[in-house]
Amino acid sequence: MAGVPATNMALYRRIQFLVGDPVALIESPVQEGFRSTLILRDIEMDRARQKAAVDEVACPKDYVPATGLSGDRETATAQAAAECCKRNQLTRVVVDRSLPMIFTEMLLQAGLEVQCDIEWGILERRQKSDRELDFLRSAQKATEQVMERACRLIATAAAAKDGTLMHDGHPLTSERVRAFIDQWLIELGFSNPLSIVAGGPQGADCHDYGSGPLKTEQPVIVDIFPRDKQTLYNGDCTRTVVHGKISNEIQRMHEAVVAAKAAATAATRAGVTGESVHRATIQAIETHGYRMGLPPQDAGPDFTSMTHGTGHGIGLDVHEPPLLDIGGPVLLPGDVLTIEPGLYCPAIGGIRVEDMVAVTQTGCENFNQLPEGLDWT
């Protein structure tokens, strides 16, 4: 494995050492199994010796090839990794799916055979340890705290004559709500990418982040997926809030989404497939009179459907295997998943409700405790 552990979470999880420069991990066969060598920048070696989950720590200057080392740090690390493999008399190297191409190139230039094991580390990363489960529970608890504050902020705002929501004398916009969310999460020790706060027709695109003033009587999708700065594990929660009167159609859409989430959650357990969980969602959505899939070319503004899968794995990254979708694999004990059905209508907007669950042998543990409703007053 190789790359930058600060951004390559598969690599970080294996070595348990966070650094913002390129590193390479080589596991060489020895009589008793494998010996792991971590090659990284020289000024990080002492810290790595204390904290990294490896047998040996080295720097590129310890493995200088006959042609010398490049002045580029990533290239030099790749050259040293290839030289380390040669000195260990390796002829074939197995790499994981995240390996940067520069490392593959240096291995090939050194005359080594390279084989990619696309499943290396995937199953281990999916099956969360008790420690990881605690990290995810904690992250989701903080996410829910902020979600509740955001939904109540929207629900209790004043409405101007034209329906624009107002807060402290100024229009309450998607951008302002996101700024509040960011500040609240910073106070809890979280970093936060751009949250989704999409009101009205903007919410009909499930990944529209939302912009501009929010309006009364329109659904607002709030989707927050922050990372704990200490543990690096993520929360992920979505709720939908309506300020003021809730129309019959918005209520009907919401009832279908909540029923789909309940059906998918009930279907989730070790040994079933991600596809079967998604099919439970499909059945609930269609039973309530709605459709699945992207709208056809000739669809009108009232066309309403669920356009995405039921959910995804989560951990050190917000999106990890497995998928709850067509072709989704068999679920394993310790998988942590989001279950997030939604319905989207260009004329109205979107409704989405998302929980985080951990898969067990007999079912799943739901980490969420927030209500699912549209009224947050």
Q: What is the tally of helical segments?
A: 9
State which percent range the strand residues make up: 15-25%
Strand arrangement in the largest pleated sheet: 1-2-3-4
User: How would you describe the oligomerization state of the chains in this entry?
Assistant: single chain
What form results from the Cα inertia axes? elongated
Helix content: 25-40%
* Number of strand elements: 23
The low-confidence parts are none
What class, by secondary structure content? alpha+beta
Amino-to-carboxy terminus distance? 50 Å
The largest pleated sheet is described as:
4 strands, mixed
Radius of gyration: 24 Å
Average residue pLDDT: 97
Structural write-up:
By secondary structure, this protein is α+β, with helices and mostly antiparallel strands. It has nine helices and 23 strands. The strands form nine sheets. A four-stranded mixed β-sheet has the order 1-2-3-4. It has a three-stranded antiparallel β-sheet with strand order 7-8-9, with no helix packed on it. β3 (33-39), α2 (45-51) and β4 (56-58) form a beta-alpha-beta unit. The protein is elongated and about 75 Å long. The termini are far apart.
